[in-house]
Amino acid sequence: MQTSKITVIGSINIDLVTGSPRFPQPGETLLGTSFERFMGGKGANQAVAAARLGADVCMIGAVGDDGFGKEAIAHLRNEGIDTTHIKVLPDLPTGMANITVANGDNHIIVVSGANFGITPADIEACEAQIAASDVILSQLEIPMECVIAAAKLARKHNKPFILNPAPAQKLPTELLELVTLLTPNAYELAISLGLPEDTPAESLIRKSGSAVLMTCGKEGVMYNDENGNIHRQHGFTVEAVDTTGAGDTFNGAFAVFSSLGMEAAVRKANAAAALSVTKAGAQSGMPTLDALEAFLAKQDD
Ligand code: RIB
Fold this sequence. Notes:
This protein is α/β, with parallel strands linked by helices. The chain contains eleven helices and 13 strands.
């Protein structure tokens, strides 16, 4: 059975996306090939991914009291997401992400704005929402103390707390001890643990002391079990147009299917992430449940 109630605590951004033949060198000016505006933010992306797959999703976060904020809330509502707990902050702009896409890959600079205006007290005010959820999902585009406040409430109410530690930063031990599952890529796990970036992936997972589901791009994922064994599961090959939001799609989908067990949930999340990269923009390619099942029905395994 799918997880029904998911609360996402995280960022809401407007993505300003420039297509380029390649990434510029420092000091270099390049002629771009396209410019588009999309809805984004790791939190909002994960919320939309989960809602498209049929979950009952509530988003906790903040936007500015500006046109972009209004647009972002209207968009999330349109995706069927409960926006009751999104604060509109008068003195900060809505979060913006400056994204360059070249050869299917991306560079992202986020200007957090209102995302960094929420406080632990705002999270604590949502205790009833957290207590009524099946899974809590968060990332690191909001203040660390808010993530910790959310993790504490999840623990208090015995709810799984999934943390996608992106963008990468060293995680306080207090937070690591509260997390049910960490979902980094290899670089993010190294930074999260304060270990050298070239530490081999398996070694990072073993040293983490946590349950880890590591995303490895088109190679799929690696994860550990309660006995310390490390498992690998392959991803699906598709023609990538824009990989922005692939990790977010994976996280949102994994949260939806987490009650199916690791192997089944990872397979569906890998498929959702693969579909997401076939269109431009973080959210455009995120599949509905029907689209996901149709894609999986065509796969050999
Ligand atoms: O993970 C992709 C997202 O990162 C983008 O939508 C951008 O807003 C940044 O938050």
